[in-house]
Amino acid sequence: MKPLPLGLRILVFMLTATGAVAAAAQAQMPSGQQLAERLAQADANGDGFLDRAEVADMPRLKRGFDKLDTDRDGRLSRAELQVVGQKLRQRQS
Question: Would you give the end-to-end CA distance of the chain in angstroms?
Fold first, then answer.
């Protein structure tokens, strides 16, 4: 059997790798229940919101806090975080 040309082999590799990355990202997306559990654990004071101190050890939330805090009240609500989750799911579809 004749080997595939290098360009075609690279294309096949890239398509395979892209599919693997997408599958891995989908597998790592937490379920609604997992997300609720993580938020409950992070909500140290139990007020139902995440403030800056509570996300200090969460680099992604800390970095995007101001953008995610759409009502500018200095804390992240479940609704604000659900919007982010929906956007992530849409990007992965």
Answer: 37
> Helix, strand, or coil here: 12?
helix
Q: What's the 3-state SS for 18-48?
A: HHHHHHHHHHHCCCHHHHHHHHHHHCCCCCC
DSSP state of 69: -
* CA pair distance 43, 75, nearest whole angstrom: 11
Rounded Cα distance between 59 and 63, Å, is: 6
3-state class (DSSP) for residue 64: coil
Secondary structure (3-state) at 81? helix
What would the two tokens of residue 32 be? 């609604």
Contact assessment for residue 66 and residue 73, using Cβ atoms and an 8 Å cutoff: no
Per-residue pLDDT of the chain (93 residues), as tens digits, is 555 455 445 554 555 544 544 544 555 656 667 777 888 899 999 999 999 999 999 898 899 999 999 999 999 998 888 887 788 778 877
